[in-house]
Design brief:
five-stranded mixed sheet, alpha/beta, single chain, two-stranded antiparallel sheet, 7 strands, Nucleotidyltransferase, domain 5, 298 residues, disordered N terminus, 37% helix, 10 helices
């Protein structure tokens, strides 16, 4: 496939014979609503939250029984695993279904979602942060301590941290599709507690549109500073996880991003996000005229 050319404005254009038409690109990009695709009512956060809660409850049961899943129970331990039961929780993202593990004598009661509890609210930002690359084991532990509260033992937090780390690494390293028509790069600013201080941190996320038109969060990363080296590392990670080609990479005017895309995925079109361009241009429009200008831009 020939290299896609650039237009006079500096952004690349799609030549004749491309695998995807401008009309199709417009339709796909029109659906993007920003980070809400992650944290909105139908976003990925519900899936991530359920996976993390299920893994944490499994670690709690391991702690309760004194042995892990698949291990030989101690001779003095008569209690055993006894399957799972479904439970529905109400969250800010809507209804969430989890699988609560059970034991034979009925003595196990999960602590992350106590018995009879039907709500799980207020931990969205901690869960998102835990799935992002760049968080240390200590960071993960502190988030779990905040979710559990103070009424749990240090050994339980340690075991849950180990189990959750496995879940997080599996998600972070999962294989990706070979081709994505569009990948959006955006940042989600969240309030994260770090060393006892709550501060705003940017979680950079890559959201890909598959060839079937479905949206998938490819990865999330936490980084104090951004630049060509950081974006090159992200592009290289996507390549290592199976991505061979991205037709259009859409992002804000991030420092070093176009150069990183050119270096790692040289045939990818880099398109500055139209929404960010409009928002930036509004700074030069008098306040009294903004409503009319925005209406005309539609």
């Amino acid at each position: 496939m020939k290299k896609r050319g650039k237009n006079r404005g500096g952004s690349k254009r799609i030549p004749n014979g491309s695998r995807i038409s401008p009309r199709v690109l417009d339709e796909l990009m029109a659906d993007y609503q920003g980070p809400a695709d992650l944290i909105g009512p139908n976003g990925l956060l519900r899936e991530l939250m359920a996976a993390l809660i299920n893994r944490a409850m499994g670690a709690e049961l391991d702690h309760h029984l004194g042995y892990g899943s698949g291990e030989t129970p101690p001779e003095e331990e008569g209690n055993r695993r006894n399957g799972k039961r479904s439970k529905k929780l109400r969250t800010k993202q809507g209804e969430l279904q989890i699988d609560v593990p059970r034991d034979r004598d009925g003595s196990f009661e999960p602590q992350i979602v106590p018995k009879h509890q039907r709500h799980f609210d207020g931990f969205d930002e901690q869960i998102i942060a835990m799935y992002a690359r760049g968080m240390s084991v200590r960071d993960i532990r502190s988030h779990l301590e905040e979710i559990y509260g103070v009424d749990v033992s240090a050994s339980l937090i340690s075991e849950v941290t180990d189990a959750v780390m496995d879940e997080l690494r599996m998600w972070q390293c999962r294989p990706l599709d070979s081709v994505y028509p569009i990948v959006y790069l955006d940042a989600l600013v969240t309030k994260i507690r770090d060393k006892g201080v709550v501060a705003n941190k940017s979680i950079n996320l890559a959201l890909g549109v598959t060839t079937e038109g479905e949206k998938r969060v490819l990865g999330m990363w936490v980084q104090e500073t951004e630049g060509a080296r950081f974006w090159t590392a992200i592009m290289t990670e996507l390549r290592h996880r199976g991505v061979e080609d991205i037709l259009v990479m859409c992002a804000d005017g991030l420092k070093g991003m176009p150069e990183s895309v050119e270096a790692v995925l040289p045939q990818t079109i880099f398109q500055t996000c139209i929404i960010h361009l409009i928002l930036s241009s509004m700074r030069f429009v008098p306040w009294k005229d903004r409503r009319a200008v925005c209406a005309n831009l539609r």
